[in-house]
Each structure stands twice: as structure tokens, then as C-alpha cells.
Amino acid sequence: MKHFTLILVSIFVFLANVANAITPAPPALGADSFILMDYDSGQIIAESNADNPLPPASLTKMMTSYVVSNELAAGNIRLDDQVTVSENAWAKNFPESSKMFIEVGKQVSVSELLKGLIISSGGDASVALAEHVAGSEDSFAQLMNMHARKLGMENTRFVNAHGLTAEGHQTTARDMAMLAQAMIRDYPNEYELYKLKEFTYNNIRQYNRNQLLWDRSLDVDGIKTGHTDAAGYCLVSSAVKDGMRLIAVVMGTRSEEARKVESKKLLTYGFRFFETVKPLEANTEVHQARVWGGEVEQAKLGVLDKTYLTIPRGKRSQVKATYEVENELEAPVAKGQIVGKIFFELDGEDISEVPLVALEDIPEGGWFSRLIDGIVRWFSELFS
To answer: What pTM, to 2 d.p., does this model score?
Structure first.
């Protein structure tokens, strides 16, 4: 296994500002659980009890909308589909839940139901959409759990589509941050609904309960509130500043005001003391490695996608990177084939690692070139 040093000075040095860079500890929050994630890098800036299973309340509807968005993207349903409201989805069945106020027997479009789900947090809209997608809420819950597993939400289990307290219905702050990241990344059109401040249906105007949408000191564009007696007051929020997007999750606060204030503390802390940097652009070559038996002798190695890091402000010039090629390369080599890793280090600690991959296809060479390579390789191994 070969190790190399990747020089990043040319990337970072002109941005250096290291004099007396100080990063305080995260703020203490009045919440049972919280987490702050950088959307682009996925790195965690602050957390507390982030893997403790808790009732999610209406944060559940984030997964309901994610599943519906997936079905729309797959062409299984359409925004203009007319959904006949069943008795199961009747607003009167949800005395403890927010409602869109749909009525039994009426037809409502998927587009309107999505708005009622996301903006009004309608439990009735959740069930109507679940039945339209999967035939029943139970079957829809299975879809929710399948998507949760696919997204890596290891400590989450959904029993219903609306989030009212039920045995075994649970999630964690970390899993909710991952879900928010997936929603923003996978379905940006549907995510646009999360920033809308009000929605009127059946002549009833309702306002989005995410109070941070009205906060002019932060550019918050989502995402979802939740509340039950068991869950307390919860909020998943996302905001952008100077090209950096953060996702904050607070669960189990004591009031609507508290979930807003505690979420703002997290977001403000992240934007003030951290930044997102791109040490490597897509298709960046960092090394060449010998390929045995190929049409060409050297393979270009690097990264195919943009690489993001989250670091304390003022420490760009201190980021170091090393990479390792795990094995000798033999043709054929496929573009994107993982051949090693790139490690990023700050203050003597690894902060991230990304795969080192081949940047191009290298087919096998002709029989004569393979023969020569075999001889050269035999001698090199003999005398190494």
C-alpha cells in the first residue's frame, strides 16, 4: 500500500486567515436531543443525544412527503391526480393534529394535498396521500420504512403517515437531519413548498408553524415543525448563508418559542464559527499510478465529484491531505473504480476521507504489450 502527500497549499494559502482562530464550544440547548449538520459535506458540527430514539410527532410528515415525491418522480402518481377523501382521512379523525380540513367524499388534487401536508401540517392530508400512493396507511408505512433504510436512518421506524403518538413510532435527531438532507438533494421542487408561509384551502387560511421563516436575521427556507405531548416541541430547520447550507434538528423542547430560539442558536453558531470549503473539484487529478497490462501505462487518479469539508473559520491553510493507493493496478480499469482513499487532516486529526478513483477507462493492451509488462513486473518484484 503506497502513501503519498497531496499538496493543498496552492488551493488554500491565498485564503489563509489563521491568526488567533478560536472556536468556542457549541451552545447549551434546552432540548432532549439536537444536531447541526453541514448539508454539503454531511459533517456534524454539534450534537447531543443525537441517536436517542424519540417520538417524532409531525416531523414524520417529512418522510410522508419524501415518499410522495419519489412516487411523483417515478411517474406512479401525478400532481393533478384527483384523490377522493376517505373516512380514514376525514379531518374529524385528528382532533389532536393539525389539519387541512378536507371532507369525506370530496376530490382533492395531489398538488393541493402536498401543500396541506407540508404547509398546514395536515394529518388528514397525510392519510389521503398515503392511501392514494399505497392503498392503505399500513402499506404506506412500509414504504416509509423502506426509504428510511435506504437513506441509512438506522434508528427510525414509522407506524403511520402523520406522526401522532403510536407504539414503536420513533426516530432520532441524526436520522431527521439525514432525511432533510435527502429531501433537499433529491426533490428540490417539492422542497420549495417548505418555505411557503401560508396556505388557504376550503376558505381557511393557515400559516406555516416554522417561525424561523419570518426571522430576517437568517435565510431559513424550511423545513418542518412537530408537537405532541410525548414528543414535546420539535423543529427541523435549514438555512443558507454565503454558499453554506446548514441543517439543524431540535427535539423535545418545551414550547413553540423554545424550539425557534434553540434552533436559531444552532444555526447562528454554525454560520459564525464554521465554513464549507471545496478542496477538490470534480474530475480533479491528484496522482498517476502504473497500470499493468493496459493500453496506457499510467492511470489518472482523483475524484469524480466535488469534495466538501466543514472546518472552523480561519483554518483553511492548515488543512492537509494524504492519499493511499491500496493495490497495484491491473487492466482493465473502469472509470470510477475505487483504488484508494484521500484523507483530510486538521490539527493532527482526520476530519474526512473520500474515495480515490480512476478518472478514465483503461482497457487491456494487446498480447505483446501484456507480455512485456509481465516480464517487467516480474523483474521489478524480483529486485524490489
So the answer is: 0.90
